[in-house]
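Changelog note: in this version the structure field was regenerated for every chain. One regenerated record is shown below for reference.
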Amino acid sequence: MPTVARQYRYTENRLSLLARMKKIEGQAKGVQRMIEDGRYCIDIVQQLTALSAAVDEVSLLILQEHISGCITDAIREQHGEEHIKELMLAIRKSMKR
C-alpha cells in the first residue's frame, strides 16, 4: 500500500512562512557578523531579541494552523483528546525555555 503524504493546513501559507524563515536566517547571519565585528553587547542583545520574536511569530502561525486544521479535524473525528494533549505538551515546552 503506497504511503500518501498528508497535506497540513500551514502549507497553504508555505511561501509566506518560507519568506519569514529566510528573513530569520538573514537576521541570524547579521548577528553572527556583529559578533565577528566585535559590536556593542546591547546592540547584539537587541538583535537577538528581534530574532527570537520573529521565530516565535512563525511558531505561533504554525500552531494556529495546527489548531484550525489538525485539532479541529481530530475533534470532528472523535479523537481530539490525544491531539489536544500533544498540543498542550508542545505549548508547555515552548513556554519553559
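Spot check on this record: The chain is about 80% helix and 0% strand. The mean pLDDT is 92.
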